[in-house]
Amino acid sequence: MSIRAFKRDDLPAIFRIYDSSKLDELKFEDTLFTLLPLENDKVRLNGLLESDIYVYEDLNCIVGYAAVYGKEIRALFVSSESRGKGVGKTLFVFSLSLIQEQAYLYVVRSNKRAKQLYQEHGFNVIDTFETTYNQEPVVAQKMVRTVLAPKQRG
């Protein structure tokens, strides 16, 4: 098991993980969403590709990935067969280690499992707003983690 920088050859695995996982983050919404495959979602794909992407490999198979853009954790997806094994948490902690300042991310309000992980690492909701996924409304939240300056830590 290891985390490494993304290579262009990793795109098919990333598409597979995203496409099999995206609707899971929306499953507690009242709306029934239809998947817009990542390779057809120009906005999300462009946002991903302009980020620093890291993949989690297990036995030479990519089972998860994360993307960081500046201070934002822009993506964190784990294949369904690898969930509950610490892959997401490991990718998340790795992503946080790359951000020296105040980190932030966006999450679907009803995605309690993800929000719990983020809160365990010091993130708090600072904004709630409506956005869309595949032209359907969804309520999202911005979460921020404040990093204390060295003299404030202790």
Number of helices: 5
Number of domains: 1
Strand content: 35-45%
- Terminal CA distance: 34 Å
**What would CATH call the class?**
Alpha Beta
The value of Rg in angstroms is: 15 Å
What sequence of helices (H) and strands (E) makes up the elements? EHHEEEHEHEEH
Helical residues, percent:
25-40%
User: Architecture, CATH level 2?
Assistant: 3-Layer(aba) Sandwich
The chain-level mean pLDDT equals 92
Q: Indicate the overall shape.
A: globular
CATH superfamily: Gcn5-related N-acetyltransferase (GNAT)
Protein name: GNAT family N-acetyltransferase
GO molecular function, one term: acyltransferase activity, transferring groups other than amino-acyl groups
Organism: Alginatibacterium sediminis
Keywords: Transferase
What does this 3D model show about the protein?
The protein is an alpha+beta fold and 154 residues long. It has one domain (2-153): Gcn5-related N-acetyltransferase (GNAT) (Aminopeptidase, 3-Layer(aba) Sandwich). 28% of the residues lie in helices and 35% in strands. The chain is built from five helices and seven strands. A seven-stranded mixed sheet has the order 1-2-3-4-5-7-6, with helices on both faces. A hairpin with a 2-residue loop joins strand 6 and strand 7. The longest helix is centred in the N-terminal third of the chain and has 11 residues, at 11-21. It is globular. The N and C termini lie far apart (34 Å). The mean pLDDT is 92. InterPro entries: Acyl_CoA_acyltransferase, GNAT_dom. Residues 1-145 form the N-acetyltransferase domain.
